[in-house]
Amino acid sequence: MKIGGDMDLSVDFCGIRFKNPFILSSAPPTTTGEMMGRAFEAGWAGAVTKTLVTDAESIVNVTPRLASLSFPGPADEPKKIYAFENIELVTDRSFSVWLKEIEHLRKKYPDHVVIASIMDDASKPDGWQYMAKKCEEAGAHMIELNMSCPHGMPEVGMGAAIGQDPELAARVTRWTVEAVDIPVMAKMTPNVTDVGVVAKYCQDAGAHAISAINTVAAIIGVDLETLVPKPSVAGYSAHGGLSGPAIKPIALKAVATIAKAVEIPISGIGGINTWEDAAEFLLLGASTLQVCSAVMARGYGIIEDLLDGLENYMEDKGFGSISDMVGRSLEKLVGQTDLSREVRLVSSINEELCIKCDLCYVSCRDAGYQAIQLKEDRTPWVDAEKCTGCSLCQHVCPVWDCVVLKPRQSV
Ligand SMILES: Cc1cc2nc3c(=O)[nH]c(=O)nc-3n(C[C@H](O)[C@H](O)[C@H](O)COP(=O)(O)O)c2cc1C
C-alpha cells in the first residue's frame, strides 16, 4: 500500500533518519513490540516503547484506568473525544522480554526507529545507566528519559518528581548520556513554572533532544451520583494525566518556549490529532511529532491522513522539506508589549448569515463593551464607536464567517 505522495517527508533528528516525522509516543499504542511492528507497517516512522523499568513485575495497574471527555452531540452521531485522563503506570512487562522485542524490531524493521523510554528514581545512577546500556545493546536508536509522568510514579520519587526539579533532571540526563553512545532525549512535564528552564538544564547536562509534553496533571470530573472523582476504582480515584486535543494549546506553548530556550531538536507531543495540528507543532519548533491519544481513539491508520494532509499543505505553501518548516512561526511570537497598539479592528456582522440567536448581543452586553445592539427584528448591528475589536462576538457566534473583524478604517 502506498502512503503519502511523492514528496520526501524524511527528517534528520539527532543524526537519525526518520522516513517521516510521525512517531508513536510511549503509551498504550506501544504496549508491546508486536504492536510497534504493526504501527511501522501502517506507516509510522518510529515508536517509543511504553516506559521500561527493571522491576516491571511489581507494577500492577488498576481498572478502570481511563476516563474521557467528549463533545456533546446528537445521539445518532459518534462521540468525539477531546481528552483522556489516565491513571496508568509504566509497563508491567519484564525488562528482559522488552530487550528481546527491541532486538527483534531492529532486525525486522531496519528502516524504522526504535526509541526506548526508561525510568528509575533520581537516587539511582546505576539503574538509569544499566537500562540505557541494555537498550543500546539490544539495538535501540535512542533513549527517552521519562522524567514527566504526573501520577503514581511521582509518589515514589520518579516521573514528574524528577522533571519538576531542574537539577534532578540534569543529573539523570548526565548519568544516562555518560553511559551510552546513542542520543538521549529528555521528556518534559508541562506541570512546571517554566519548562524552558528544565529543558536548558537537560541540554547543558548533555541531552541530545527534548520531547514535550507528557500528560497534564488533572482530575477530569466527579460522578455527581456517587460523588467519586473519575475514573472510579472500587469507589475511589486518584488524580491522573490529561491527554488529547484539549492539551494541544499547552503543548504548543511548551514547544515554543523550549525552542527559544535550547538549541537541540524537539520532539513535539500533546493533542496531535490532525495534519493541521502536526503542521502547527513543526512551525513552532518541533522536528519530530509523537502521537498517543489520537491513535487510542482511531487506530494506527490515522497515519495516512496525517501524511497526505501534511504533504498537500507543504506543496501548497512551497515548503520543500520538513526542515524548511521547523520553527518558521517562532519569529512571529513576540512579547505582549511588542504587539501593535496602532492597528485596530472592528466587528462586522453579515446580516444574511445571521440566525438571530442573540449570542453576540448578550456576550457583548455582559462581557464586552455594549457595542452590539438589536434592531426591532433582532438583527444585531455594531456601534463602531463603542466596539474595541476584542473579537468575543466572533467567537461566540455559532455561524462560521457571520462575524468578521475588519480594519477600522474600512468599516
Ligand atoms: C494511557 C496513557 C499511558 C501513558 N503512558 C506513558 C508512559 O508509560 N510513558 C510516557 O513517557 N508517557 C506516557 N503517556 C503520555 C504520552 O506518551 C503522551 O506524552 C501524552 O499522552 C500526550 O500526547 P497525546 O495528547 O497525543 O496523547 C501515556 C499516556 C496515556 C494516555
Salient structural properties:
411 residues; alpha/beta; eight-stranded parallel beta barrel; four-stranded antiparallel sheet; 18% strand; globular; binds flavin mononucleotide
Could you explain how this protein is built, in words?
The protein is an alpha/beta fold and 411 residues long. The chain contains 13 helices and 18 strands. The strands form 5 sheets. It has an 8-stranded parallel β-barrel, surrounded by 8 helices. Strand 16 and strand 17 form a beta hairpin. Helix 1 packs parallel to helix 2. The chain starts with 10 loop residues before the first strand and ends with a strand. The mean pLDDT is 96. The structure holds flavin mononucleotide (FMN). The site of flavin mononucleotide has 27 residues, from strand 6 and helix 9.
Task: Break the fold down into its secondary structure elements and pairings.
Blueprint: E1 11-13, E2 16-18, E3 22-24, H1 33-42, E4 46-48, E5 66-71, E6 80-86, H2 95-108, E7 113-118, H3 125-138, E8 142-146, H4 160-163, H5 166-179, E9 184-188, H6 195-204, E10 209-212, E11 216-218, E12 240-243, H7 248-261, E13 266-269, H8 275-283, E14 288-291, H9 293-298, H10 302-317, H11 322-325, E15 345-349, H12 359-367, E16 372-374, E17 380-382, H13 392-396, E18 403-407
Helix pairs in contact: 1-2, 3-5, 5-6, 6-7, 8-10
Bound molecules: flavin mononucleotide.
